[in-house]
């Protein structure tokens, strides 16, 4: 029986070229698996046919949209996940769900190897291979683009010489990855970090400076999950899609950053994540109203570590699984509504209300109905600062001052 290799297929340059490389180098049959994670753009049937045209013997399209939104984007939202305080894990979140389907396809088609089209410089090689090892330790992994040492220019030449039906050309050298949670653009002239991004790079967002009317939105949350927008019930996927449309129209969610990759190099990336950034802003504000102070402080630490694990390709790690349990527990009272005004690239919260609120108007007010007993504050302040006061007195005594 001819060996079979399952390839994670995106429809782009690297994976299209990889089909021919694998067949030539190994003699194996290539099973291309493309995942619909809400990336939009080309029709998935067109991508499936492209895989066949590039030499795959089978091509499968898996609809992962709801699974991705519910089981990957939602936990990221509840963790307030922003790598380096800016990047909402656009690509990192989609890799583990794709790997789940690759591993299942390998089982279904009797393949012993899973292949990906990642280079040796990026994060995705780590995310794919570590996740494959976590879910199916017996599967072998093949990385033809990385292991052949073929540069992007050579890959473009390879594709042009064989007339492969792909979009990437010398005049359009960008590497683009997108899904419903956001869009990432790199390479080309962006590799010079002095060059500013041009408007043609963007697809999910409109120019923030363009004149338009502000958009006010009401987002309802239940246990940290958006369940309605302007009173209309939505699934997680629908919430992201609607906020992509509305926040994107206001130019929200553009990110230009130099980030620290897993492999140790710094990389310049352009991201668009309008729905993600608007939902994150709303969720954080509702947590400000509903989480107890010490719980909220510790959740920041846990959320940051969770984000780093996901960025580093450790979605299926034991620590990530343990942190999931803590983060899920923090969401039980994150219920209520957030009113937000979106305009000119910003999403500003203007109202919050929750039956689970820890905000007490009568304690917070300075008006006559104030129920806070200020007479208790003097002793509290003295005790709170006592250890610092004693330490300072000790230092002065020891120094002889």
From TrEMBL:
Of which family is this protein a member? Belongs to the argininosuccinate synthase family. Type 1 subfamily.
Q: Which Gene3D superfamilies match?
A: Argininosuccinate synthetase, chain A, domain 2, HUPs, Single helix bin
- Where does the record place it? Cytoplasm
User: Which residues participate in ATP binding?
Assistant: 8-16, 117
Q: What does the record list as GO biological process?
A: argininosuccinate metabolic process; L-arginine biosynthetic process; urea cycle
Q: Which GO terms describe its molecular function?
A: argininosuccinate synthase activity; ATP binding
Arranged from A to Z, the UniProt key words for this protein are: Amino-acid biosynthesis, Arginine biosynthesis, ATP-binding, Cytoplasm, Ligase, Nucleotide-binding
Q: How does it assemble?
A: Homotetramer.
Q: What is its EC number?
A: 6.3.4.5
> What general EC class does the enzyme of this chain belong to?
ligase
Q: Which InterPro entries match?
A: Arginosuc_syn_C, Arginosuc_syn_N, Arginosuc_synth, Arginosuc_synth_CS, Arginosuc_synth_type_1_subfam, AS_cat/multimer_dom_body, Rossmann-like_a/b/a_fold
Amino acids binding L-aspartate: 119, 123-124
The transmembrane segments are none
Q: Which gene encodes it?
A: argG
Q: What is this protein called?
A: Argininosuccinate synthase
Please give the organism. Nakamurella leprariae
Report the main location listed first in the record.
cytoplasm
Q: Which residues belong to any copy of the Arginosuccinate synthase-like N-terminal domain?
A: 4-165
Q: Which pathway is this protein assigned to?
A: Amino-acid biosynthesis; L-arginine biosynthesis; L-arginine from L-ornithine and carbamoyl phosphate: step 2/3
SUPFAM superfamilies for the chain: Adenine nucleotide alpha hydrolases-like (SSF52402), Argininosuccinate synthetase, C-terminal domain (SSF69864)
